[in-house]
Amino acid sequence: MERIILHLDMDYFFAQIEERENPQFKGKLVVVGADPKGGKGRGVVSTANYLARKYGIHSALPISKAYELCPNAIFLPVNMELYQKVSENIMEIVKKYSPKWETVSLDEAYLDVSFLKGYKGTKRGATSFPRKGEEGGGGVGVLAEKLKKEILEKEKLTCTVGIGPNKLIAKMAAQIAKPNGLLIIKPNQVEKFLEPLDIEDLPGIGPKTAEKLRIIRINKIKELKKLSKAKLKDMFGVVGETIYERVRGIDEEVVTSEEIIKSIGKEHTFEKDTRDPEIIFGKFEEIIEEIGRGLSSANFSFRTITVICRFSGFETHTKSKTEPRPLKMDGAKVKMRTKSSLPTLKNPTQDFEILKSESKKLLLKFLIENPKPIRLIGLRVRIC
């Protein structure tokens, strides 16, 4: 059966909800995130509406920079309780359109609609690549339009839908079609769709990877496709193999309805950059305690610990502790150990003392290796 995957992506989700709840914000620049504090805020932007994005404001931008760019914008705090409730409502709608659905985040989901048995059908409802001169997606396009319409009618929010032969192409189609769009990429259109795109349009290629590629004058996916698998692996390790497949539109990952929590994490931004060990480790202890409670309440084991540290100037680094060949636990709980006999992470574990000890060791390395003041610390553990 021919695979047909639909990717739903809500448009500027948090900011759009705020516009819905506050009609007076319509037509104005809206930024959701940390308190800018008159340009002295320490956090980052969570999201912004499209009017604000025209001024260069985007997710993860320092809130102080956002204020500098648009001091007259409406700056709002994150209302996660509201956003989660709206997300739940939307996902209940999504589930009605396919027995195979997967929630990726609060504002994204995949649907496997292969039961439609192909892209053929009427010409109603969708734009198929290229946008002019070709037949629309037909049945799958009609389904997507119905989904978009139901979300708009019930939640008063717009979304974008991308459709393709796998998750990768569906997601990229949605990114191209934003906002409030619908784009269908048929299997025989994948190559033509991908080749003219910028290398950073390909999921998995961030600024650092792109920088290495641009040095050797590779800017488009068509140019990247010319590199051999061996060359990409030599440049980027195992990630190179993934890049080799993605530039060819290959993605075998299936849509699964299991809601799997892959990691738990938390970050904290200090009011002022600091090198004070008491302040840094005091806050880090709180983060460890919170993550430990989350692991315990869900009865999760973990295998990988990652510490995030952002220094002055937004220089961000991570350090991890993991075991390359994890052993299966068969549901058995790990016995608590004393600090004097703490092991390395050879096996998945639920031991809070291991979490505490290994996390602090990683953070201490940052303090020893980098003399710069610290702006942000964070901890993430991978669930297994």
TrEMBL record:
One of its GO terms (biological process) is DNA-templated DNA replication. The record marks 14 as: Substrate discrimination. It is an enzyme of class 2 (transferase). It is found in: Cytoplasm. It comes from the Bacteria. SUPFAM superfamilies: DNA/RNA polymerases (SSF56672), Lesion bypass DNA polymerase (Y-family), little finger domain (SSF100879). One of its GO terms (cellular component) is cytoplasm. Keywords: Cytoplasm, DNA damage, DNA repair, DNA replication, DNA-binding, DNA-directed DNA polymerase, Magnesium, Metal-binding, Mutator protein, Nucleotidyltransferase, Transferase. Its cofactor is Mg(2+). One of its GO terms (molecular function) is DNA-directed DNA polymerase activity. The keyword DNA repair applies. The keyword Flavoprotein does not apply. Residues 5-206 form the UmuC domain. Transmembrane segments: none annotated. Its EC number is 2.7.7.7. The active site is at 108. It catalyses: DNA(n) + a 2'-deoxyribonucleoside 5'-triphosphate = DNA(n+1) + diphosphate. Poorly processive, error-prone DNA polymerase involved in untargeted mutagenesis. Copies undamaged DNA at stalled replication forks, which arise in vivo from mismatched or misaligned primer ends. These misaligned primers can be extended by PolIV. Exhibits no 3'-5' exonuclease (proofreading) activity. May be involved in translesional synthesis, in conjunction with the beta clamp from PolIII. This is DNA polymerase IV.
